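User: Here's a chain of 179 residues. Predict its fold as tokens.
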Amino acid sequence: MAARSTPGSLIPTERIVQGIIEVRGRKVMLSSDLAALYGVSTKAFNQAVKRNAERFPADFMFQLTKDEAQALRSQSVTSNGRPGRGGMRYRPYAFSEHGAVMAASVLNSPRAVEVSVFIVRAFVRLSRITADQRQLALKLAELEGTVAAHDKALRAVIARLKEMIKPTASGKKPIGFGP
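Assistant: Prediction complete.
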């Protein structure tokens, strides 16, 4: 009997999370990254998606603009994309979490179904991390406000104390024992 892969042994969630990028304010994965995860060529992946275009509305998938594709190329070390030299020759497609899962259904292979579960988990994990970061930013802003208020109050106390220890300017002798 062959050993069955455990959820963590197929694809580490961290690997999938690294493939999730933000484009147009949305968390997406590129067609080439999804194809690699699903174990098919990018060409075969894109053909399967095009054959089932009605399953991929704009909130599931969109094609990057020329500027977006160029920006992605400049962020990573890739070839210049000239034919025969490797690199991207076409503008890649970007898939939301729902689009990535839908892609598994059009590929219709056991690996695609299994990988789609990991992709959903990676998107959920990334959403939790983003939410945690937002909460942390809010708490930090609240703390900064509190510190600023305390700083203002401390400055007022120090100013008042300085006034209290200033020598009197009236020329009268101070009350009490002196040196």
